[in-house]
Amino acid sequence: MEDHQFRNAMGNFATGITVITTVVENEVYGMTANAFTSVSLDPKLVLISIANKAKMLTHIQQSKKFAVNFLASDQRAVSMQFAGQIKDAKPYEFDWFNSHPVIKDALANITCSVKSEYVAGDHTLLIGEVTNLQLKDGEPLLFYQGKYHELKHVE
């Protein structure tokens, strides 16, 4: 199979959108990602997948911590900014929670310490142990077939 065929097939799986954040020597970094999943309840573990060539991987490996921020339906511009799709965006003003930079008004801010990492192909899987979280009400921003979507309730 060809790469584009595989990518198109994976695009048929709808996902939520997160922004992963970390801080290294008082400099905050963030990137949009949809490769996130919960792993374990006891202990509380989550997994993120980051391309080996992404600068964010090095930042998280240095800081040994990260936050996962679940974006709300009205945060498309935030997703685009951290995906590098808005070139002249002004610097984002982060909130802080549990000593981590987090996205304001996200549906969830989950702070983690890196528990382990595994190289898998052209990505590295980072397992994070959850150190704290905060939740807000709202609807999620979704990604499906390469486009943003909002949740539609079905009775």
Overall average residue pLDDT: 94
How many alpha or pi helices?
3
Q: What is the alpha-carbon Rg in Å?
A: 15 Å
User: Strand-and-helix sequence, N→C?
Assistant: HEEEEEHEHEEEEEE
Uncertain runs are none
Category by helix and strand content: alpha+beta
Task: Write a short abstract of this structure.
The protein has helices at residues 3-10, 55-63, 76-82; strands spanning 15-16, 18-24, 27-33, 36-40, 45-51, 65-70, 95-97, 100-102, 108-120, 123-135, 141-144, 147-150. It is α+β, with helices and mostly antiparallel strands and 155 residues long.
Notes on the structure:
- The chain is of the alpha+beta class and 155 residues long.
- It is built from three helices and twelve strands, in the order αβββββαβαββββββ.
- It has a seven-stranded antiparallel β-sheet with strand order 3-2-6-9-10-5-4, with helices on both faces. Strands 1-11-12 form a three-stranded antiparallel β-sheet, with no helix packed on it.
- β7 (95-97) and β8 (100-102) form a beta hairpin.
- The protein is globular and about 40 Å long.
